[in-house]
Amino acid sequence: MSVTPSAVTVIVPTFNESGNVNELVRRVGDALAGTGSEILFVDDSRDDTADVARAAALTSAIPVRVIHRERPEGGLGGAVLLGLREAENDLCVVMDGDLQHPPETIPELVARRDEGGFDVVVASRYTGDGDASGLSDRARVFVSRLSTLVTKSMFPIRLREVSDPMTGFFLVDRRSIQLDSLRPRGFKILLEILARQNLHVAEVPFSFAERGAGESKASLSQGVKFLLQLGNLRFGRMSVFAIVGIVGAIANLIIMAGLQAVGVEYVWAAIVASVVTIIGNFLLIEQFVFKDLRATATTVWTRFAKSFSFNAVEAVVRIAVLYLVVSTWHVPSVLVAAVTLVLAFIVRYVFHAMVVYAPRKETEAALEDSTGV
User: Fold this and answer.
1) Residues 332-370 pLDDT 10s
2) Cα–Cα dist 117/211, whole Å
3) How far apart are CA 233 and CA 226, in angstroms?
4) More confident residue, 91 or 78
5) pTM for the complete prediction?
6) Are 297 and 357 in contact (CB under 8 A)?
7) Which of 31, 130, 328, 337 is the most exposed place for a label (fewest CB within 10 A)?
């Protein structure tokens, strides 16, 4: 006796994918016709992707809905989280809109879930007869393999049954996950889901296809966001602050060494490098470390003034120490600068957490009123 497959909501986060929408809707519709399933586009595009999706809905074999976000929050991960909240069905399949995730694999994900009652079913490039041949070049294959290895090494227990935690193609039962616990910062939403709680996970293989129309969204900035997301999941907010600090420290040393190489005296080189990296670090921690605290903190210019003032004072002290140590003990200036940057890290984090991003007084009062304190 045949069993009717469970109905699913296929969540497709899109950014400028208008050239792929019609083919995607047709293929998903063919794969899920008669199951009571739907397609939900969560669109952050600047082109006509949302309009194309609405037009495709008129001829689709299954219902199609479109949510267009004028102010995207959380990137692709935020789009998926919104889709999980708005889905008509508890079982949700997440997939990209570029046709690299074959819609014909969706029934296999559903069947695997139905037979085992799994919380998550991952479509994997690295199990069974799956493959990653759709990656554009060997460099991307290497990066994918390396990032997978690093990720699994950081979560050896929760990812022990997962060969492809970096995939963007998976089925999840939203009743099994705590949506409010998710803090999407980048595009690896599956990693966010798996790392935050213990789930019953299965896999099915799939072949990663070549992109349809449009251009890949992979970039250096996406790589940086992934590292920050990984650090935050594994070690918390302070680790992301540390990563930003490391990036700033490296930039500081490079700028300082470069200025010295063209004849700038080391003290002046250190001053210029410090000013540039203080500004750069503030912009990074605004976006990646304390973003969730900005709404209750003071204005951005007040935060910047506090941050810049503290870092300027810290830099003066650090440069004074630099001058004293170099002139007295003749230690290489770049080495001394590196040591003092490391020593300043903890004090800098505490100041930003407790002062720069402290709640406004009116916010504190409102919290006290609401809690009866």
Assistant:
1) 887 877 777 777 776 787 788 778 888 776 544 443 444
2) 32
3) 10
4) 91
5) 0.63
6) yes
7) 328
Alpha helix (H) residue ranges in the chain: 18-32, 49-57, 75-86, 106-116, 138-154, 189-196, 220-235, 237-261, 266-288, 300-329, 333-351, 361-371
Q: Is 115 exposed, middle or buried (0-12, 13-18, 19+ CB in 10 A)?
A: exposed
Contact 303, 357 (CB under 8 A): yes
Q: Give the pLDDT band of residue 223 (cuts 50, 70, 90).
A: low
In angstroms, the CA 290 to CA 335 distance is 30
Taking phi first (over 0 means left), then psi (-120 to 50 degrees means alpha), and beta for anything else, what does residue 93 get? beta
Mean pLDDT over the full length of the chain: 82
- The pLDDT of residue 154: 64
In this structure, the answer to whether residues 171 and 266 fall within a common structural domain is no
Exposure of 3 in the CB half-sphere (CA atoms within 13 A): 9
Q: Give yes or no for a contact between 123 and 109, defined as CB atoms under 8 angstroms apart.
A: yes
Residue 120 is given by DSSP the state E
Q: Which domain holds residue 149?
A: 9-215
Residue 228 belongs to a domain: no
- Considering its fold, how many domains does the chain have in total? 2
> How far is it, in rounded angstroms, from Cα 172 to Cα 94?
8
pLDDT band at 50 (very low <50, low <70, confident <90, very high): very high
Domain end among 215, 249, 275: 215
| The two three-digit tokens of residue 5, written as one number | 């497959």
Q: Are residues 15 and 113 in the same domain?
A: yes
DSSP H helical segments within 87-219, as ranges? 106-116, 138-154, 189-196
Q: Report CA 158 to chain centroid distance, whole Å.
A: 19
Tell me, yes or no, whether 181 and 260 share the same domain: no
Say if residues 277 and 245 touch (Cβ distance below 8 Å). Answer: no
For the beta carbon of residue 284, count every other beta carbon within 10 angstroms.
20
Which H or E run contains 41? strand 38-43
